[in-house]
Amino acid sequence: MNYIENRTFDEINIGDTVSLNRTLSMQDIQLFAVMSGDVNPAHLDEEFAKSDMFQKIIAHGMWGGSLISTLLGTVMPGPGTIYLGQTLQFRRAVGLGDTITVTVTAKEKDAEKKRITFDCECINQQGKAVITGTAEVIAPTKKIKRLQTVLPQINLHDPGAHYRRLIALTSGLEPIRTAVVHPVGRNSLIGAMIAAQVKLIVPVLIGPEARIRAVAEAENIDLSPFTIIPTKHSHAAAATAVAMARAGEVQALMKGQLDTGELMEAVVAKGTGIRTERRMSHVAAMDVPNYPHPLFITDANINIYPNLEEKRDIVQNAIDLAIALGTAIPKVAILSAIENISSKLQSTLDAAALCKMADRGQIRGGILDGPLAFDDAISPETAKGKGLNSPVAGQANILVAPDLEAGTILAKQLEYFAHAQAADIVLGARVPIVLTSRADSQLTWLASCAVALLLAHQNK
Question: Domains in the chain and their CATH numbers?
Answer without folding.
Answer: 3-147 (3.10.129.10), 161-459 (3.40.718.10)
